[in-house]
Each structure stands twice: as structure tokens, then as C-alpha cells.
């Protein structure tokens, strides 16, 4: 282990110690009292408090001004979960997908969930102005691109299609196709419906090629 890495780890350890002491305290503490508790130099404590303040982990507290002289700076820990801790959203997604797949009418529920989310996506127009099919598809491609689907405009036999070259939920889509793919289909359907677009997504073919899913578009006569 290099000296730089070791120094960084020691610094992080001291910062955790400062936070631990503040969390354990029933009242706000001064720099001097924290330093005495940890047997550290006050300047070292002041340095780590600066970082903890910037990270939103501790806060200043008004000191008692009844005593003569300049009151010391007082600190206390902010009582909340550590925002810098690890995240495991994939695990959450797997749990939710498994629960949805195990229930009745899982396909319909997944489709409805996707539609509800799709209706929240930003419309390409304002004040209910009508948009054409080409503009609708262009906007859909833009939305899907932002979501990580790597979409492309395609056409087969005169029918417009949207090819999806990437799945942002690839691992889940392979194991929970019955719920993940309907969510994607519903998302596109909900978005186009909320935009009052003259096109709709009729169906979604998953993995027609190893690196391609196909969304088939159809014209809507009236919205």
C-alpha cells in the first residue's frame, strides 16, 4: 500500500471518528471537546469538520452567549442516513420484478405501470397543439435515447418501426421478460397517447436479434 493511499485511509478514518463522537453526543460539541475526546490536535478536528460540513453531515449550532467572552463554535451531527453510502437499485428492481411476475395478470399490470410512467414524459408540444407522425416518432426516439435504449428509426414493408439496440435493464429483461418488456411497451404507448400523437406502438418484439428489440408503429386515425 502506498503512503498516499494509507494517508487517505487514515484521514477518512479520523473523519468517521469525528462524526461518530458527534452522533454519540447528547449536546453540541466544540472543536476543543471533540479533539480531547479523540486525542487529536484541534486543527485536525477543524479540518475534518470542514469536510463534514461541506458534505452536509454536520452543522453549526448557536453557542450559549450568556457566558462572557467569544463563544466557541459548536457542532452537532445531522440526524439522517449517510447519503454517500452504497446503492443497490438493481437489487430493488429484481425484487419488484420478481414480485410482479409472481402475481396474477403480471403482463397487464406491467403494461399499465409502463403506460403510467410514459404519460409523465415531456410532451413535444404545448397547449395541446397537434403534432405529426414524423415529429412524434422523432420525439419518441429522443426520449428513448435519453433513457438509454439506443433507438433507431427503421421501416419494413412500409411499416415504421423503432429499433432498440440497448436495454437499460438488460439482465432483468433476460430473466423477467414477461414484466420488463411490457413495461417498455407501456412506456412508449403511454408517452405517445399523452402527446396525442397520430401514431402508436402496436407491439414490441423482444430480442428479434441478440442486439435488437423491435417496436412496431401503427397510425392512429383520431385522438
Automatic annotation (TrEMBL):
Quote any Pfam family the record assigns. Answer: HTH_20
Q: Which domain of life is it from?
A: Bacteria
Instruction: Please give the name of this protein.
Output: Transcriptional regulator
- From which organism does this entry originate? Mycobacterium haemophilum
Amino acid at each position: 500500500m502506498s503512503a498516499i493511499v494509507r494517508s487517505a485511509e487514515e484521514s477518512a478514518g479520523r473523519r468517521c471518528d469525528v462524526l461518530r463522537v458527534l452522533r454519540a453526543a447528547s449536546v453540541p460539541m466544540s472543536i476543543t471537546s471533540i479533539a480531547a475526546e479523540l486525542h487529536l490536535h484541534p486543527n485536525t478536528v477543524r479540518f475534518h469538520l470542514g469536510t463534514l460540513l461541506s458534505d452536509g453531515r454536520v452543522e453549526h449550532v448557536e453557542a450559549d452567549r450568556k457566558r462572557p467572552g467569544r463563544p466557541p463554535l459548536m457542532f452537532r451531527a445531522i440526524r439522517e442516513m449517510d447519503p454517500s453510502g452504497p446503492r443497490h437499485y438493481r437489487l430493488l428492481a429484481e425484487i419488484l420484478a420478481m414480485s410482479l411476475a409472481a402475481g396474477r395478470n403480471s403482463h397487464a399490470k406491467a403494461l399499465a405501470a409502463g403506460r403510467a410512467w410514459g404519460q409523465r414524459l415531456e410532451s413535444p408540444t404545448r397547449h395541446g397543439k397537434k403534432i405529426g407522425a414524423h415529429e412524434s416518432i422523432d420525439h419518441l426516439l429522443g426520449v428513448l435515447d435519453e433513457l438509454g435504449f439506443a433507438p433507431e428509426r427503421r421501416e419494413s414493408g412500409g411499416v415504421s418501426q423503432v429499433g432498440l439496440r440497448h436495454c437499460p435493464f438488460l439482465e432483468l429483461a433476460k430473466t423477467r421478460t414477461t414484466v420488463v418488456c411490457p413495461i417498455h411497451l407501456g412506456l412508449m404507448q403511454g408517452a405517445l397517447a399523452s402527446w396525442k400523437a397520430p401514431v402508436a406502438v402496436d407491439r414490441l418484439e423482444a430480442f428479434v436479434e441478440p442486439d435488437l428489440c423491435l417496436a412496431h408503429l401503427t397510425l392512429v386515425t383520431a385522438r
